[in-house]
Amino acid sequence: MDYDDEQTRDVYAHYGLAMYLAQTLEHAIVNALVILRLPEKEKYTRQDIDEFMEGNFQKTLGALLKQLKSEISFPPDLESVLVEALNRRNYLAHHYFRVRAETFVTRNGRTQMLHELQSDQRLFEKADEQLAKAMKPLRLTHGATDSAYEAEYKAMCQRLGI
User: Fold this and answer.
1) Which residue, among 54, 13, 46, 12, has the nearest Cα to 30 in the 3D structure?
2) Which of 69, 87, 62 is nearest to 33 (CA)?
3) Is 162 helix (H, G, I), strand (E, B) or coil?
4) How does pLDDT run across 103-160, given as a tens digit for each residue?
């Protein structure tokens, strides 16, 4: 494999990682919507929660953000990073390779694309981290502690045999 092939592969890999992190953010928003229902958790069954989550996984990132914003006030810095993440996710999903077609055929262009995609990855991670930080006091108040998350993770790993 020559350098151009490796670099092309790296662009695709970093694009894939950026989109994965965007989907992770989408999942975090759905989780935040579930956390907002914890004060009334006794009226929901596990099936209700699963159906609620599945219904929300069908929504776009923009629709999820709109719903979350209608249910909770964000600190201004969180709202701005979430809007930026939404815009970058939409650009990546709908326009990126078409707009970057000429850039993609040169080494310097691919290098530029790699830097952009790594920046996008950091943006999605930042948005996810800030959302988790904003939601943490509410989830802790209603029993969704870090130790409960850890126990659930260990149980999942055990079920999967890892």
Assistant:
1) 54
2) 69
3) coil
4) 999 999 999 999 999 999 999 999 999 999 999 998 888 888 888 888 888 988 999 9
How wide is the angle at C-alpha 134 spanned by C-alphas 132 and 137, nearest 5°? 95
Q: Is 90 exposed, middle or buried (0-12, 13-18, 19+ CB in 10 A)?
A: middle
At residue 27, what is the residue type?
H
| Contact partners, residue 110, CB within 8 Å, separation at least 6 | 7, 8, 10, 11, 103, 104
pTM, to two decimals: 0.90
Q: What phi and psi values does residue 142 have, to the nearest 5 degrees?
A: -110, 20
Determine the Cα–Cα distance for residues 60 and 89; give it in Å rounded to an integer. 11
128 touches 25 (CB < 8 A): yes
Residue whose tokens read 């006794």: 42
Q: Where are the alpha helices (DSSP H) in the chain?
A: 3-35, 46-57, 61-71, 76-94, 96-99, 101-104, 107-141, 146-160
* Cα–Cα separations (whole angstroms), residue 147 to 17, 140, 150: 28, 10, 5
